[in-house]
Design a protein that fits this description.
alpha/beta, NadR/Ttd14_AAA_dom, AAA family ATPase, 175 residues, P-loop_NTPase, 6 helices, five-stranded parallel beta sheet, Rossmann fold
Length: 175
Protein backbone atom coordinates (compact mmCIF):
# COMPACT_ATOMS: atom_id res chain seq x y z
CA UNK A 1 0.00 0.00 0.00
CA UNK A 2 1.29 3.41 -0.90
CA UNK A 3 0.67 4.82 2.59
CA UNK A 4 2.65 2.05 4.34
CA UNK A 5 6.18 3.40 4.81
CA UNK A 6 9.11 1.28 5.99
CA UNK A 7 11.90 2.67 8.14
CA UNK A 8 14.62 0.05 8.05
CA UNK A 9 18.39 -0.16 8.06
CA UNK A 10 21.12 -0.88 10.53
CA UNK A 11 20.29 -2.22 13.97
CA UNK A 12 21.04 0.42 16.55
CA UNK A 13 20.73 3.21 13.97
CA UNK A 14 17.97 5.10 15.78
CA UNK A 15 14.91 3.67 14.00
CA UNK A 16 12.78 3.04 17.09
CA UNK A 17 13.49 6.52 18.45
CA UNK A 18 12.55 7.98 15.07
CA UNK A 19 9.31 5.99 14.93
CA UNK A 20 8.43 7.23 18.42
CA UNK A 21 8.89 10.81 17.18
CA UNK A 22 6.70 10.15 14.13
CA UNK A 23 4.08 8.74 16.50
CA UNK A 24 4.27 11.88 18.67
CA UNK A 25 3.58 13.84 15.48
CA UNK A 26 0.31 11.99 15.05
CA UNK A 27 1.32 9.31 12.56
CA UNK A 28 0.38 5.66 13.00
CA UNK A 29 3.46 3.57 13.79
CA UNK A 30 4.09 -0.16 14.01
CA UNK A 31 6.75 -1.46 16.38
CA UNK A 32 9.49 -3.71 15.02
CA UNK A 33 8.40 -7.38 14.84
CA UNK A 34 11.80 -8.60 16.01
CA UNK A 35 11.71 -6.71 19.30
CA UNK A 36 8.20 -7.96 20.06
CA UNK A 37 9.17 -11.55 19.27
CA UNK A 38 12.29 -11.42 21.44
CA UNK A 39 10.33 -10.01 24.39
CA UNK A 40 7.69 -12.71 24.05
CA UNK A 41 10.18 -15.55 23.61
CA UNK A 42 12.22 -14.40 26.61
CA UNK A 43 9.10 -14.19 28.78
CA UNK A 44 7.88 -17.63 27.69
CA UNK A 45 11.24 -19.39 27.55
CA UNK A 46 10.90 -19.89 23.79
CA UNK A 47 13.64 -20.65 21.30
CA UNK A 48 12.63 -18.49 18.29
CA UNK A 49 15.40 -16.07 19.19
CA UNK A 50 18.04 -14.79 16.78
CA UNK A 51 20.85 -16.21 18.94
CA UNK A 52 19.18 -19.66 19.33
CA UNK A 53 17.10 -20.40 16.21
CA UNK A 54 17.51 -17.53 13.78
CA UNK A 55 15.46 -19.19 11.00
CA UNK A 56 12.48 -19.72 13.33
CA UNK A 57 12.86 -16.12 14.47
CA UNK A 58 12.83 -14.86 10.84
CA UNK A 59 9.76 -16.97 10.02
CA UNK A 60 7.91 -15.55 13.02
CA UNK A 61 8.96 -12.04 11.99
CA UNK A 62 7.54 -12.62 8.51
CA UNK A 63 4.24 -13.85 9.94
CA UNK A 64 4.06 -10.92 12.35
CA UNK A 65 4.86 -8.42 9.58
CA UNK A 66 1.95 -9.80 7.54
CA UNK A 67 -0.35 -9.48 10.56
CA UNK A 68 0.88 -5.92 11.11
CA UNK A 69 0.03 -5.00 7.52
CA UNK A 70 -3.47 -6.41 7.89
CA UNK A 71 -4.02 -4.55 11.17
CA UNK A 72 -2.66 -1.28 9.75
CA UNK A 73 -5.15 -1.31 6.87
CA UNK A 74 -7.74 0.37 9.11
CA UNK A 75 -5.46 3.34 9.85
CA UNK A 76 -5.85 6.57 7.94
CA UNK A 77 -2.88 8.47 6.56
CA UNK A 78 0.74 7.40 6.68
CA UNK A 79 1.59 4.25 8.61
CA UNK A 80 5.27 3.92 9.52
CA UNK A 81 6.70 0.45 10.06
CA UNK A 82 9.83 -0.14 12.14
CA UNK A 83 11.17 -2.72 9.71
CA UNK A 84 8.82 -4.96 7.78
CA UNK A 85 8.28 -8.04 5.71
CA UNK A 86 11.27 -7.47 3.42
CA UNK A 87 13.65 -7.32 6.38
CA UNK A 88 12.43 -10.65 7.73
CA UNK A 89 12.43 -12.29 4.29
CA UNK A 90 15.97 -11.05 3.60
CA UNK A 91 17.12 -12.55 6.90
CA UNK A 92 15.41 -15.87 6.20
CA UNK A 93 16.85 -16.04 2.69
CA UNK A 94 20.34 -15.25 4.01
CA UNK A 95 20.07 -17.92 6.72
CA UNK A 96 18.46 -20.75 4.76
CA UNK A 97 18.85 -20.01 1.07
CA UNK A 98 15.06 -20.20 0.68
CA UNK A 99 13.84 -17.73 -1.99
CA UNK A 100 11.83 -15.79 0.59
CA UNK A 101 12.19 -12.46 -1.22
CA UNK A 102 10.93 -13.60 -4.63
CA UNK A 103 7.19 -13.28 -4.02
CA UNK A 104 7.60 -9.85 -2.42
CA UNK A 105 8.39 -8.25 -5.76
CA UNK A 106 4.66 -8.17 -6.52
CA UNK A 107 2.89 -8.97 -3.25
CA UNK A 108 2.56 -7.16 0.08
CA UNK A 109 4.06 -3.94 -1.21
CA UNK A 110 4.95 -0.89 0.83
CA UNK A 111 5.44 2.71 -0.30
CA UNK A 112 8.03 2.81 -3.08
CA UNK A 113 10.38 4.94 -0.96
CA UNK A 114 12.04 3.10 1.92
CA UNK A 115 14.02 5.00 4.54
CA UNK A 116 17.22 3.34 5.75
CA UNK A 117 19.11 4.23 8.91
CA UNK A 118 22.82 3.82 8.13
CA UNK A 119 25.32 2.29 10.56
CA UNK A 120 25.94 4.79 13.34
CA UNK A 121 28.59 3.35 15.67
CA UNK A 122 28.44 6.39 17.96
CA UNK A 123 24.91 5.53 19.09
CA UNK A 124 25.00 1.73 18.65
CA UNK A 125 24.34 -0.20 21.85
CA UNK A 126 23.43 -3.76 22.71
CA UNK A 127 20.65 -4.58 25.15
CA UNK A 128 18.78 -7.71 26.28
CA UNK A 129 16.91 -7.81 22.97
CA UNK A 130 19.82 -6.78 20.72
CA UNK A 131 22.76 -8.98 21.59
CA UNK A 132 24.66 -8.88 18.30
CA UNK A 133 27.56 -6.52 17.71
CA UNK A 134 27.96 -3.70 15.25
CA UNK A 135 29.66 -5.95 12.65
CA UNK A 136 26.57 -8.16 12.41
CA UNK A 137 24.38 -5.06 12.22
CA UNK A 138 26.48 -3.67 9.38
CA UNK A 139 26.28 -6.99 7.48
CA UNK A 140 22.50 -6.93 7.87
CA UNK A 141 22.46 -3.35 6.56
CA UNK A 142 24.46 -4.40 3.50
CA UNK A 143 21.91 -7.13 2.73
CA UNK A 144 19.06 -4.62 3.00
CA UNK A 145 20.90 -2.21 0.67
CA UNK A 146 20.63 -4.96 -1.95
CA UNK A 147 17.24 -6.49 -1.08
CA UNK A 148 15.04 -3.41 -1.25
CA UNK A 149 16.26 -2.10 -4.65
CA UNK A 150 16.11 -5.65 -6.07
CA UNK A 151 12.39 -5.57 -5.25
CA UNK A 152 11.90 -2.19 -6.95
CA UNK A 153 12.03 0.10 -3.93
CA UNK A 154 13.80 3.47 -3.91
CA UNK A 155 16.16 3.87 -0.98
CA UNK A 156 16.42 7.08 0.95
CA UNK A 157 19.30 7.04 3.43
CA UNK A 158 18.47 8.89 6.63
CA UNK A 159 20.87 11.60 7.75
CA UNK A 160 22.81 11.13 10.96
CA UNK A 161 20.99 13.94 12.72
CA UNK A 162 18.84 14.46 15.77
CA UNK A 163 15.48 12.72 15.83
CA UNK A 164 13.46 15.83 15.02
CA UNK A 165 15.55 16.53 11.91
CA UNK A 166 15.18 12.92 10.79
CA UNK A 167 11.39 13.06 11.19
CA UNK A 168 11.29 16.35 9.26
CA UNK A 169 13.40 14.71 6.54
CA UNK A 170 10.91 11.86 6.16
CA UNK A 171 7.86 14.10 6.18
CA UNK A 172 9.41 16.34 3.50
CA UNK A 173 10.39 13.36 1.36
CA UNK A 174 6.81 12.03 1.40
CA UNK A 175 5.12 15.32 0.41
Amino acid sequence: MERFVVVSGCSGGGKSTLLAELGRRGHAVVEEPGRRIVKQELQEGGSALPWIDAAAFARRAMAMALEDRASAAISDGWVFFDRGLVDAAAALQHLTGEPALAALRWEHRYHRRVFLAPPWPEIYATDPERRHGIAAAEAEYSRLLEAYPALGYDLCILPKADVSERADFIERALR
